C-alpha cells in the first residue's frame, strides 16, 4: 500500500507537470511569433525604383535578402528555445517526480502507521489464539477506527460462540454418556443373573456390542468437536514418546489379530496438546490394525527433518484405489463399503486425524501401497530446542 501510494503521487505529479510543460511550450512559441506592429512592410511597397530601372529582380534586393535572413534566424531561435524548454523542463519534471515519490513514501508511512498498529495487534491475537483479547485501537473516528471496532465485534461474537460450543460439548458429553453407562450396567447385570437363559445372554451380548459401538461413536464425535478448535495450549513434547505409549496400549489388540508391529521411533520434538496428538496416533494405529488381515504387518516410525517432525504409519491389507484416498478423511466414510462391522470403528478415525493435524498447523497425506494397505504420513511443526 505504501509503495502504491508513493508511485501514485509521483505519477500524478509527472502527468500534471507534463501537461503544464506542453502548455508553457505553446505559450513560448506564441510569444516568439512576430507581432503585427513589428512586421516589416512587404517588399513590393518599399521596393527601390533603382531595381526596376535597371531591370534587376526582387531576389537581388539586399533589403529582401536581409528580411529572409531575419526570418530564418527567428525560426531557428524559436525552435531551439522550445527545444530547451521541453528538455530542461522534462529533466526537471522527472527529478521533481522522483522527489515527490520519495516524499509520498514518507507521507504514506505516516498515513498507514495506524493500519500497521492494527495489523500487528491482530497478528498477535491470531498467534495467541486468545479470543478474549481485543485490538482496542485508540484514534480518531476514521475508517481505521471503524475497521478495528468491527474486528473487535467479530472477536466478541466468536468468543461467545466458542464458549457456547464448549458448554454444549460438555453437557452433551454428560447427557449422552450417562444413559449409555446405565444401559451397559443394566444389560451386564441381566446377563450375569443365574436364571438368565441362553437367549437372554446372547441378546445381552449383542446389546453390549451395540452399546460399546455407540460409546465409541460419541467419544469420536466429541474428539472431532474438540479437535476442530484451534489448539490454545501449546506445550512442548516428544512425538515419539506419545507414539510409543499408543503402541504399547495397542499391543494386545495387534497380538489378538496376529498383526506384527515394526517400530522405528526417533526423537521428534513438537508442541501442542499431547492428549489430542495421542488420539491422532491412536486412531492411525487402530486403523492400521483393524483394516489389516490376519498375519499382516504394520510399520510405525517417527523422525525429524528441517523444521518439521513426521509420523508415518503403514500397514498391509486390501488394495486401496487411488481415487478413494481423499474420501477416507471425510466423516463416516469407510473403505470397501464396510458399514456393518462395529469392530472397525465409526468412520471418524481419519477425520479426527485430519482435524487434529490442522489444529496443530500440520499436514496429513495418504497413499496406497502396491502390496495392499495404506501409508499415512502426518507432519507437524518442529519445536526448536
Automatic annotation (TrEMBL):
Pfam families: HAMP (PF00672), HATPase_c (PF02518), HisKA (PF00512). Its main location: membrane. One of its GO terms (molecular function) is phosphorelay sensor kinase activity. It catalyses: ATP + protein L-histidine = ADP + protein N-phospho-L-histidine. SMART domains: HAMP (SM00304), HATPase_c (SM00387), HisKA (SM00388). GO terms for cellular component: plasma membrane. It is a multi-pass membrane protein. SUPFAM superfamilies: ATPase domain of HSP90 chaperone/DNA topoisomerase II/histidine kinase, Homodimeric domain of signal transducing histidine kinase. Its EC number is 2.7.13.3. It is an enzyme of class 2 (transferase). InterPro entries: HAMP_dom (IPR003660), HATPase_C_sf (IPR036890), HATPase_dom (IPR003594), His_kinase_dom (IPR005467), HisK_dim/P_dom (IPR003661), HisK_dim/P_sf (IPR036097), Sig_transdc_His_kin-like_C (IPR004358), TCS_sensor_his_kinase (IPR050428). The keyword Chaperone does not apply. Residues 109-163 form the HAMP domain. PROSITE patterns: HAMP (PS50885), HIS_KIN (PS50109). Keywords: Kinase, Membrane, Phosphoprotein, Transferase, Transmembrane, Transmembrane helix, Two-component regulatory system. This is histidine kinase. It comes from Planotetraspora thailandica.
